[in-house]
Amino acid sequence: MPYHTKKRTAQVSGTILLSILCSTAVNAATLEEIREQGSIRIAVADEPPYGYLNENGEAKGVGPDVAKPLIEALEIDSIEWVSTTFGDLIPGLQEGRFDMVAAEMAILPERCQKVIYSEPTTSYGEGLLVAASNPQEIHSYSDFAERDDIKVAVLGGADQREILQALGVPESQMVIIDNNADAVEAITSGRADAYAATGLTVSDLEGRDPQLEVTSNFVDPVINGEEVRSWGGFTFPKDAESLRDAVNRELARYKNTEAWEQTLTAYGFTQDDLLNSFKYTTEQLCNK
Length: 288
What we know:
Blueprint: H1 3-24, H2 31-37, E1 39-44, E2 52-53, E3 59-60, H3 62-73, E4 78-83, H4 89-94, E5 100-106, H5 109-112, E6 116-117, E7 122-124, E8 126-131, H6 143-146, E9 152-155, H7 160-166, E10 174-177, H8 182-188, E11 194-198, H9 199-206, E12 212-214, E13 222-223, E14 226-227, E15 230-236, H10 241-254, H11 258-266, H12 271-276, H13 282-286
Parallel strand pairs: 1-4, 1-5, 9-10, 9-11
Antiparallel strand pairs: 2-3, 5-15, 6-15, 7-15, 8-11, 8-12, 13-14
Helix pairs in contact: 3-10
C-alpha cells in the first residue's frame, strides 16, 4: 500500500475512533434532569448495616435511610435502587450506571480523584471477625504484619486493604473477597483466619454463624501516629456537582434533627461515632 494511502487510512481510522470515544462519553445527569425524569438511581453494596437490599428488594441500612428523606426534600419522585459489589461502586458511577452511591464509602484522597463526595454522613472504627474462641489469638491488624502463619480476608475495593498495606502486611497474607457474606465461608473453610472490616460490619456478620465471633480486646490500628477511623459519605460522578451540592444542603439540615441520630443509633452507631462525623469536612478528608 502506498504511503499516502496508509496515512489517509490512519487519519480516517483516527477520526472514527475519536467519534466513537466522543459518542460513548458519559455525562452525569444534573439535578434538574433527574427531577424531570422523576427518578434517581442509587447504588448500594449489599453491606449491612451501611446499605443493602432485603429479601423483598427494599433498600435498608444507614445509607439508604439517610438518603431517602434527602431525596424527598429535593422533590425527586422515586428512587431506583441498584445492588452491586463494593468494588463496582466507583466504576458504576464513572460509567453512568447510577447517579449516586449510598454505601457509606469512606472518604479517601485516592477516591476523591475519581468521584466527588457529600459531606460526611457517618464515622466508624475498625474490627476483626475470627473463628469462635479465636484459636489463632488475633487481636489487631498488626498481628498479620508480625506473623507469617495467619491470613486475613479483605473486601475488594475496601480501604482495609490499604490500611493493612500501610501496616506492612504482605499481599500474600491477604485473601480478597467480593462480598461481606463471603467472609463467613473464608473463615469457616480455613482460607482465612480473620476478616478485616469496620466494627459494625463484623458485628453484623458475627450473628450469622455460631462458628464466628468478633475478636475481643481489639486494638485499633495506628498509622503515622493517628488512630484509624473512617468517615463515610454519599458518592457521585465527577461532574455531578449540582446534585452533590443539593444533597449537601439537605444533609446539613437533616444532621441537626433527632431523626438522623435515631437512624444511626438504630444501626449500632455510638454517640462517639455521631460526634466524630462532624470532626472533618470532606475537603479536609480528601486532602489528608
